[in-house]
Please model this.
Amino acid sequence: MISPLTYFGIHLTLLLPPILILGWLAVRRDRAWWGVRPLSGLVIMIALAVVYTTPFTNRLIPAGVWWYGDGAVLATVWYTPIEEYLFFVLQPILTALWLFQVRPSADRSLAIPRPHRLLGVAGGLAIAVVGLLLLLGDISTSYLGWLFLWAGPVLAIQWGFGLTYLWDVRRSLLVAIAVPTLYLWVVDRIAIELGVWVISDTHTTGYGLLGLPIEEALFFLVTNLFVVQGITMYIWVLDRIDGVSAVTGASPRLPTSSDDR
Model:
């Protein structure tokens, strides 16, 4: 199938405009996050996204989980189109620039209760275990299984470190995650409808959300969780270190395990 729109065209028409608008708002609005801290957090998220997602896509594409329309991509590196690598950069930028408008924050010490840390780790690892079980089942759950297995370790790290804080800012966090996720669902649905990429019926469960495969919907939800939680906790840590240093006059330090309440 020949796609009427290329993958790069998706970037130009559907991703770049909201990025430019949100970037302008972040610079202009006094209440938005901007400066070295949020931007350095974004750079870290982009680097992690590229490093961690590259093996994931290069495992699933040759397995036939999804593929691209004729003429929809310019070239591939390994098995992944260069436009997909560009998406690894553009999605965190889009999500982070919206996050900068929301600014989730709460006054909480870095020394969160140990049971909360264990609960966070257990939650992430449980997702990974579910993913492994799905991979051992029918081929129709292979995309979902790989997604859960891939997402679980990251969520275990993030929730293990800051589950209590994330719960404290849950309302603003929900807004920060929901808006870009809903938008990217629409973008994904358009791209699938136009044949820019095709999701395998064999490797998916067949369940969908207004025509969008549930696996794709969960992918964008999970990746936006990574970005929003990561940057939010990054700024939380830097702010708390500054707060401790300003009060005590001592050199900043992160809490050790003995500091946990």
Summary: The beta strands are 66-68, 76-77, 80-81, 197-199, 208-209, 212-213. The two ends are 59 Å apart (CA to CA). Residues 105 and 204 are 38 Å apart (CA to CA).
